[in-house]
Amino acid sequence: MKNVVLIPGDGIGAEITNSVTTILEEAGAEINWIECSAGLKAYEETGNPLPEETIEALDEHRISLKGPLTTPVGSGFRSVNVALRQKFNLYSNIRPARTLPSIDSPFRGVDMVLFRENTQGLYIGKEEWIEEADNKKHAEAIAVVTEEASEKIIRAAFEYAVKNERKKVTLVHKANILKLTTGLFLEVGRKIAKEYKDIEFQDLIVDNMAMQMVLRPQQFDVVVTTNLFGDILSDLASGLVGGLGVTGAANIGDDAAMFEAVHGSAPDIVGKNVANPMALLFSSLMMLEHIDQKQIAENIRKAVYKTLVEKKVYCTPDIGGEGTTSTFTQAVCDNI
Ligand code: NAD
Which SMART domains match (predicted)? Predict the structure, then answer.
């Protein structure tokens, strides 16, 4: 039995985590769930969006599955998601994008896994106002790229490629313009690529990458990039296979990992039994792979694909079904 911290989160969080834990149990996953709270609900109950007990549980067990958290605009509390990534140095954000049966998309045959550096680049929040003589507004932001952090994420991408029998790693940068920051990222990538002779290495400038992803996404296998480019390209990749509602995500560091759905808490559909649990379910499959319960993940994946073939009957309205959270959950359980 593996201890996993379960944070249902806000809004539809309880409904989709219920569905996911039911399916994992049906499939025989060996998990002991330790339920903890975080987000708006935790804030309303305890005055803290990230209670000390939750941090202690995460510290002890190191693996978590997290539903969406509401971040009220202008409430003064910082994003718990960002706080967790920083606290546990979850430097790899991993987003697979794989074509699914019966999910509408003009693109078929997509199967890529995008690694986004999660702690540096332009997203470190170092911004400042610069005083101008004419009182015109002027703001500046700093991007940070270090050799050490670049090495970690790029190595994580190559190691993933080896473990999962992938053939190619594409590094995305803008080293022709941002010669120092993304230039360093590229330099580290070229150095690491030499250690992995069996994996093809390619580097692409980000604007070309965006075009190629739309023209011929099937050419990409494992992709690794910096924080800002990764933020944009990972959503683009999800868009190629049906959007954020059907793609899983993981945040992984050296000694902790958090698996989560990328969509939000969907306040407009709470309690209506129409929340789609697929994104969180796919994240939980990444978690099962991470904790060496790969066969169980594969069995669930097959059961979901089978359920998708009869999408109209069993799946939720957001992907064109006429079913509910419950009918989807039951159908996946039956197909296992
Ligand atoms: P949202 O993703 O919650 O909702 C956008 C639209 O997508 C809504 O119409 C919603 O009903 C639909 N939707 C989202 N998930 C769905 C699902 N699983 N099944 C069916 N439909 C689904 O985005 P938002 O409305 O911009 O944000 C709401 C709250 O969520 C905000 O407080 C925001 O801060 C938070 N949020 C959290 C995360 C996270 O925890 N990772 C991510 C994004 C937004």
Answer: Iso_dh
